[in-house]
Amino acid sequence: xxxxxxxxxxxxxxxxxxxxxxxxxxxxxxxxxxxxxxxxxxxxxxxxxxxxxxxxxxxxxxxxxxxxxxxx
Length: 72
Prior knowledge:
The protein is an all-alpha fold. It is built from three helices and no strands.
């Protein structure tokens, strides 16, 4: 079963605000620093969510090992 995602045609207020904020010349170093900042932010949020799900589901290392080796 394919998952169909709706395409968005409008920017939300936060996206517009960010575009205005960064509508200026930036060095490659600044660009990389901002990308790292955003990547770290979302990585932290993902880790919290994964830990929540693992705790909620009661997964153990043995469960993960079974999942990884299911098709082997």
